[in-house]
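residues and backbone:
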Amino acid sequence: MPIKSPVTGSYHTSVIQEISVSRIVALYNEELGFDISRYFHGLETIQLCRCDDSGYRFYYPFDIFGDDVFYQHLQNFENYYNLEKWEYGAVSDLIPEKAEVLEIGSGGWSFYGIGGTEEKRHPVAGHRAEHQSGVGSQE
């Protein structure tokens, strides 16, 4: 079955790897003590795919994602969401000064804090789904 690219909308995609769901579930159980099997809706495998037009990699099917319970469980681990990431600095260097940034899935709004001086800091708007811990969207 052809898989549509989430970036370009074309069907110019390749399956890079078939990944065993049972292996993923076992790793989460071993490493985090959390059963994630319900998120896979009975699937035996998922695919790591590549958009051949853009090079973007993505997982398929698209309807596999964690819910509030999943992310609340992950927040119990010290290294779940590091406030400082090398990616922030690398990306910040690529954004023109005074450019506006839309941060999607903005976690704790850590990206906003990068950039050193107030003059260099980029105006950031972001959105993340509201969940029970009370953190929600900011625009």
